[in-house]
Every structure is written in C-alpha cells, then in structure tokens.
C-alpha cells in the first residue's frame, strides 16, 4: 500500500515530545559532523531524532479489505470519484499558485469561498469534504517543510523536494469522528452515507489507539478490491539497551547487506526483485509489439500497459515491506539499537516519487526506517562513497574479484557488500567485528525465504568474511 496518503512522508521531527531539545541536539551533531568532515547523517525515524527517549507518539494505520455489497460499490464509486476530482482540482490550483508566485497554500479555506466547490460538498458531506481538503493541505505542508529543511541544509543533497502530484487512484477520506469501527461485527459504519460495510483482516494498531484518526478508503485496480486504512495515534515504547550498531549497504545483487557490531552479517538477495523487473519488461514489450497492429484498440493497450506497471509496483512494495519487517525483527532479536544506512549519493533519479523504475533504494531505506521504528531501533542515513573501495579492517584499497568478492592486499578475501556494510558501520562510529557469521535470505512479494542455513558454518562465497581478519 502506498503510505503517502496516510502519512506526510518524510517527517524529520516528532512533535510533542520535547522536539526542541532534540532540535538542539541535532544542531550540535550537525556542527560536530561538519568539523569531522563527514556531514549529512540524516535521522530517518523517531528514535534517530530523539536518541534518549524511551517513548514516542506516532501515527500508524491498519489496512483491511472491505467487502462491500453490490449497491455499496456504486456508492463507494460515486464518493471516490468525487473525492479524486476535488483533490486534483485543489492540487492543480495550488500547483499553479506555486508556479506563478512561489507561494504554498497549506490551508483549506479557499474551497469554502469558491462557489465551484459547492457540488463536492453535497456529495461528500461537509466533514469528509474538509477531510479531503486536509489531505491535500497536508501534502503541501510537508512539501513546504522539506523545502525549509533544504534551505537550512538539513536534507541530504540528493533529496530534492517536488510539489505534490495529482492523485491517480480512487480515494475516499473520512474524518476521524465520521465513522465507527464495529470490531465485533467486523464492519465500518460510514456516518454521512449511513452504510455499514463489512471488512476482513486483522487490526493491530487500532487496539492500541490513543485516538482514532482518519479513515482512507482506496480502490486497488490490480486486485480489484477496496481497502480501508484506519489511522490510529499510538505510543511506541522501547527499553534502554546496550547500544549495538549495525551498518547497511544497499545494492542490486543484495538488496540489503548488513553487518552488526556483534558479528552477525545479514544478506537479502535481490534476485526476485530483479526477475520481477525482467518480467515486467517482457510483458510490456510483448504488449507494445501487439500494439503495432492497426486494428489494436489504443485505449485498451494503454490501460493494459498501465496495469502491468501498477502490478509491478504493488509486488515491489510488498516485497520491500516483507523484507523490511523481517530485517527489523532480526535486528531486534540480535539486540541492535542503531542502524546506519549507506545511501548511494550519485543516484538522483530515485526520489520518493511514483512512476519511477529506478532501483528503489529510497523506498527500501524508508521501509526499513519505519519497520525498525516499531521495534525501537534508530535508523540513520549516510553517504556511502568509497565504502566499497577500501578494506573495512585495514583501510587500504581492495581489488574486485569475481562472484562479488574483494581482495585486500593483506591477503584476505571478503564479500564486497559485507565489506561495504562494515565500512558504513565504521563511519557510524561502530566497531568492526573480528568475525562475521552470515545469514542469507531471499525476499519475495509473498514472504521471506531463509536459505542455505548450512552456509553459516562453512566459508563459502556467501560468508567469506569468516576468513577475514
Ligand atoms: Zn584488509
């Protein structure tokens, strides 16, 4: 599921929990880092923002599948189309305003003055009308905040904020007090339309809620199903633990290569994601070939093309989500408290936008930060230049060898990605372990496969670091 609808995306500071102190600490840290010449360590979640806190209040969402009756589908469609239209009308107005004057409208008042919005209010009801406008306003506010951070030099150089785009999906926004969740009946009652829609799926965050938040209903064209995203404000807690750091290198052969101070290496292979990419390419090129025939319906062809891309995006998101959850749980079990993600700085194309087929480094980093946040682990982002060129143990230049290995002039061979991860660990102030025991996994859209457990004990290509040191 696309989370940008529910959260305003990259939120650097958690409000309401001594944000000022955290701000001061951060400024100090930035100054310190600049002194050392290694700038641009960016906190990616609430624990990285507030390293000393044991509690944090955040918004989370449960996603459940709606099971609307036939006549309810018509109703949902009508409301969703109106909402989509309203949202895009507002996005367009704000975008024009921004392009012409540089001003960013982060309020919702305009729609109340402008008579051309009156029809929407009737279809949606005044509360949900306002809620849809708030959704738009929030994405512009978050854009404004990112611009301000950029001006203050607090964003990584490659992160270039872009104004919000128009909404492609069908969506319904319901204000927090305009729906009721009937847990026993497994149904949601929409107050304005006065319908009760059944759902299927488990609620996790809603049970822990301090308060109920917005409900967003979306239509997933690939699955042909309606989903409800129920936001809840919850309190995350974590125990104070002995600090254990972990460095991560992001890549294509290995989506994630991680090494923790306590000597555990984790590899998440990129093979399935790669074949998903390949499959998409094949399907689209076959479609394009068929599209050359004169009697081929262009609209149908375009729709099908879009469908393949959407399907791919969805499978990619599921794969990343599965990996991030598995990775965060494994780190938690290993006692890791702080994670440093090396981000390839020269990749300018992989921004948090949709419709982007570049390798999803940024998506992976964000998914890890969020999954780790749930388990009390701080995640930081840092540049990874040269981390693959030098030996993490000796600091001298390494030679690239076949099969993803590197050779140090001191005579030991290492897994290239694990070596990079160890260099990132070092940059994050961590201690490079003497020996590394490696576990390898293959993330898929349906789950994470643990593979080659036997390799732990043998010094095979997947765990050459055992021979290192
Ligand atoms: Zn070496």
Layout of secondary structure:
Blueprint (H helix, E strand, L loop, with lengths): L18 H18 L5 E2 L2 H4 L5 E13 L2 H32 L8 H4 L4 H7 L1 H26 L19 E4 L4 E4 L4 E4 L4 E6 L10 E10 L4 E13 L7 E6 L3 E7 L3 E6 L1 H20 L7 H36 L4 E6 L17 H14 L3 E6 L15 E3 L3 E3 L5 E3 H12 L9 E8 L2 E5 L18
Parallel strand pairs: 9-12, 11-17, 12-13
Antiparallel strand pairs: 1-13, 2-6, 2-8, 3-7, 4-5, 5-6, 7-8, 9-10, 10-11, 14-15, 15-16, 17-18
The chain binds zinc ion.
The average pLDDT is 85
The secondary-structure class comes to alpha+beta
Strand order of the largest sheet: 1-13-12-9-10-11-17-18
Secondary-structure element sequence? HEHEHHHHEEEEEEEEEHHEHEEEEHEE
Q: What is the domain tally?
A: 2
Helicity level = 25-40%
CATH architecture descriptor text of the largest domain? 2-Layer Sandwich
Multimerization status: single chain
Sheet-strand content, in percent, reads: 15-25%
**Poorly predicted tracts of residues:** 1-39, 348-357, 454-469
Find the CATH superfamily of the largest domain.
Answer: YqgF/RNase H-like domain
| Radius of gyration from CA coordinates | 24 Å
| Counted beta strands | 18
**Main sheet specs:** 8 strands, mixed
Number of helices: 10
Distance between the termini: 43 Å
Query: What's the CATH C level of the largest domain?
Result: Alpha Beta
Identify the overall geometry.
globular
């Amino acid at each position: 599921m696309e989370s940008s609808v529910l959260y305003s995306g990259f939120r650097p500071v958690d409000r309401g929990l001594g944000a000022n102190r955290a701000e001061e600490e951060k400024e100090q840290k930035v100054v310190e880092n600049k002194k050392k010449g290694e700038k641009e360590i960016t906190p990616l979640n609430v624990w990285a923002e507030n390293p000393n806190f044991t509690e944090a209040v955040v918004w989370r969402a449960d996603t459940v599948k709606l099971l609307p009756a036939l006549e309810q589908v018509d109703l949902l469609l009508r409301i969703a189309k109106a909402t989509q239209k309203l949202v895009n009308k507002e996005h367009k107005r704000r975008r024009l305003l921004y392009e012409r004057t540089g001003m960013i409208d982060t309020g919702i008042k305009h729609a109340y003055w402008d008579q051309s919005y009156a029809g929407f209010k009737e279809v949606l009801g005044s509360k949900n009308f306002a809620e849809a406008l708030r959704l738009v306003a929030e994405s512009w506010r978050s854009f404004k905040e990112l611009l301000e951070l950029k001006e203050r030099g607090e964003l990584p150089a490659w992160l270039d904020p872009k104004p919000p785009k128009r909404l492609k999906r069908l969506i319904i926004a319901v204000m927090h007090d305009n729906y009721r969740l009937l847990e026993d009946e497994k149904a949601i009652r929409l107050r304005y339309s006065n319908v009760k829609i059944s759902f299927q799926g488990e609620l996790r965050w809603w049970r822990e809620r301090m308060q109920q938040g917005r409900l967003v209903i979306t239509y997933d064209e690939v699955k042909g199903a309606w989903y409800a995203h129920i936001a809840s404000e919850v309190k995350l807690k974590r125990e104070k633990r002995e600090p254990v750091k972990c460095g991560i290198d992001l890549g294509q052969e290995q989506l994630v290569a991680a090494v923790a101070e306590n000597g555990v290496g984790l590899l998440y292979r990129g093979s399935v994601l790669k074949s998903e990419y390949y499959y998409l390419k094949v399907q689209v090129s076959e479609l394009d070939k068929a599209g050359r025939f004169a009697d081929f319906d262009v609209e149908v062809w375009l729709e099908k093309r879009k469908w393949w891309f959407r399907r791919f995006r969805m499978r990619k998101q599921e794969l990343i989500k599965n990996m991030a959850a598995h990775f965060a749980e494994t780190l938690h079990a290993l006692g890791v408290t702080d994670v440093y993600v090396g981000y390839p700085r020269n990749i300018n194309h992989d921004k948090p936008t949709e419709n982007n087929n570049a390798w999803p480094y940024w998506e992976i980093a964000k998914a890890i930060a969020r999954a780790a946040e749930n388990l009390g682990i701080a995640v930081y982002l840092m540049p990874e230049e040269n981390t693959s060129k030098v030996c993490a143990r000796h600091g001298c230049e390494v030679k690239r060898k076949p099969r993803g290995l590197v050779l140090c002039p001191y005579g030991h061979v290492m897994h290239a990605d694990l070596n990079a991860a160890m260099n990132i660990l070092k940059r994050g102030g961590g201690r490079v372990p003497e020996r590394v025991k490696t576990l390898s996994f293959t993330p898929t859209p349906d789950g994470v496969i643990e593979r080659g457990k036997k390799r732990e004990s043998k010094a095979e290509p997947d765990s050459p670091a055992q021979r290192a040191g």
